[in-house]
Design a protein that fits this description.
InterPro entries (chain B): ABC2_TM (IPR013525)
Number of domains of chain B: 1
Largest interface: A-B, 26 and 25 residues
Family (chain B): Belongs to the ABC-2 integral membrane protein family.
Protein name (chain B): ABC transporter permease
Keywords (chain B): Cell membrane, Membrane, Polysaccharide transport, Sugar transport, Transmembrane, Transmembrane helix, Transport
Number of helices of chain B: 14
CATH superfamily of chain A: P-loop containing nucleotide triphosphate hydrolases
Helix content of chain A: 25-40%
Number of domains of chain A: 1
Structural class of chain B: mainly alpha
Distance between the termini of chain B: 24 Å
Number of strands of chain B: 0
Subcellular location (chain B): Cell membrane
Shape of chain A: globular
Radius of gyration of chain B: 19 Å
Shape of chain B: globular
Oligomer: heterodimer
Chain lengths: 243, 264
């Protein structure tokens, strides 16, 4: 059974400043998320976040810049470890974060598919099996044999999306990337995401694009300064303009 | 401490499962460094040959005294360059892999082994040059050379441990990167790569011979090549250094593997 259970999740990290001969900055920050002691600053990125997702749930993460959306995705993926609280995920997780993360710029698209596959733990036979599917879905055509660095943002996004979704992940985490593709591709991507969710998967999508979120998600989590509120419906206007 | 070690071994086990990844990445790295060149990785061979050739040519008369000087320099330089490159690269290994560490869930062992693999591949090209020099110097192939094998194995075994230690050092203490680079540059002259203990004339130089860990890693490979004897004392010292490196490396890996991402 695919599920995500997050309980009292807290993430605090230390931002260290190296030793320097400059005078220490003794001003007290007004921002409550940042605590300062000597040369170290502690940033509370997520504070007491609790929610559960079951098969078929598509969660939209909303909140202004720095609210903790990306951090939450990284915690769910497992690249960041919570400082307190628990995160239980069941199911094969794949993630689409910053597009350039985890791609080799000098290697061709094809080679990058192989590398990504190996990193995700696929066997060479599985990679071979899905290679043509991935290339076809990405619509990269002959570009697939050119180095990754020659791709436009949109092309890179298309490749990343194709790789991440072709192996039918049970849980898919996505961060604000979809705007990069053109309209046709966005349409195709939305369709594939719906298919994934229908196959009893879970999707978590962080975005500022409320139209997109409304079209793709059935639940919403609003993050504000690291704290979270679960919503059943998305407010009409962008959150930051409502205050 | 037991917790940290369990944690570290979990990372190692995951890294072993992902061995195809570091093998592929290491090959990719070698290719990347020489992309757009005609000679490709053979530049590694060429660089080594000019380096070794210059040393042999310049220092032969003054420092050699005894025979087999080309062998002495060729083998010593091969091991030294391997150590130097591995340590210098290890200082920045995690910083360079920032995008992968933040974007994927690969165990850190993958990056460590990738660098180790890369160092070995690079050294294999230089090894071809070393063999050429040995043949040109008129050293006939000797069964006694096989005695160098334990030394080579120990050197390879110490590599991942050293990468772990220097990798975490470089990530957590960024300044150390420049300090170590400096030490490695001077180390070439303080380590008996092209001078010998017999011609060192005692004094400070012999201190640099005896109290220098690099000396022993050079000797465990070089001595069997020169006089077909097993340098047991040096092997013992290197074995102890290897165990200590691994122990510190594993403790660092166990305690910091999940925290590393925050300092990058």
């Amino acid at each position: 059974m695919v599920s995500i259970d997050v309980k009292n999740l807290k993430l605090v990290y230390r931002l260290r400043q190296g030793f320097s001969l400059e005078m220490a900055d003794r001003r007290v920050s007004g921002h409550s998320q940042i605590k300062k002691r000597g040369r170290t600053r502690w940033i509370t990125a997520l504070d007491d976040v609790t929610f559960n997702l079951r098969a078929g749930d598509r969660l939209g993460l909303v909140g202004s810049n720095g609210a903790g959306k990306t951090t939450l995705l990284h915690v769910l993926y497992g690249t960041l470890e919570p400082s307190a609280g628990t995160v239980h995920t069941q199911g094969r997780v794949d993630a689409l974060f910053n597009i350039s993360l985890g791609f080799r710029h000098e290697a061709t698209g094809r080679r990058n598919i192989i590398m990504r596959g190996l990193i995700n733990g696929w066997s060479p036979a599985q990679i071979d099996h899905h290679m043509e599917d991935i290339i076809a879905f990405s619509e990269l055509g002959d570009f697939i044999d050119l180095p990754f660095k020659s791709y436009s943002q949109g092309m890179a996004a298309r490749l990343a999306f194709s790789i991440a979704t072709c192996m039918n992940p049970e849980i898919l985490l996505m961060d604000e990337w979809i705007g990069a593709g053109d309209t046709d591709f966005q349409h195709k991507a939305r369709k594939r995401m719906a298919e994934l969710a229908e196959k009893a998967g879970i999707i978590v999508l962080a975005s500022h694009n409320h139209g997109l979120l409304r079209a793709s998600c059935n639940r919403f989590l609003k993050l504000e300064k690291g704290r979270a509120v679960l919503l059943d419906e998305l407010p009409a206007a962008p959150l930051r303009n409502r205050r | 401490m037991p917790g940290a070690l369990t944690n570290a071994f979990a990372d190692l086990a995951e890294g072993y499962e992902k061995r195809r990844v570091w093998w592929a990445l290491a090959r990719e790295d070698i290719g990347d460094q020489h992309r757009r060149t005609t000679l490709g990785p053979f530049w590694l061979l060429f660089n080594y040959m000019t380096f070794a050739g210059t040393f042999i040519f310049v220092f032969r008369s003054s420092s050699s005294g005894s025979d087999h000087y080309p062998t002495y320099v060729a083998v010593g330089l091969l091991v030294w360059l391997y150590i130097m490159e591995t340590i210098t690269q290890a200082m920045t290994v995690f910083v360079r892999e920032k995008s992968f560490i933040k974007g994927t869930r690969l165990p850190l062992t993958v990056y460590v082994m990738r660098l180790a693999m890369q160092s070995v591949i690079r050294t294999l090209y230089a090894l071809a040059g070393c063999v050429i020099i040995l043949l040109l110097a008129g050293d006939s192939i000797h069964v006694g050379w096989l005695l160098a094998l334990p030394g080579v194995l120990l050197l390879l075994l110490a590599t991942p441990g050293a990468i772990l230690v220097f990798g975490f050092l470089g990530a957590y203490v960024p300044d150390s990167q420049f300090f170590v680079a400096n030490i490695m540059r001077i180390g070439m002259f303080l380590t008996p790569v092209f001078w010998r203990l017999e011609t060192a004339g005692g004094g400070v130089r012999s201190l640099f011979y005896h109290w220098n860990p690099f000396t022993y890693f050079l000797e465990i490979v070089r001595q069997p090549m020169l006089n077909q004897s097993m340098p047991l004392l040096a092997l013992g010292i290197c074995a102890i250094i290897t165990v200590v490196l691994w122990l510190i490396g594993l403790l660092l890996l166990g305690t910091l593997r999940r925290k590393l991402v925050f300092v990058l």
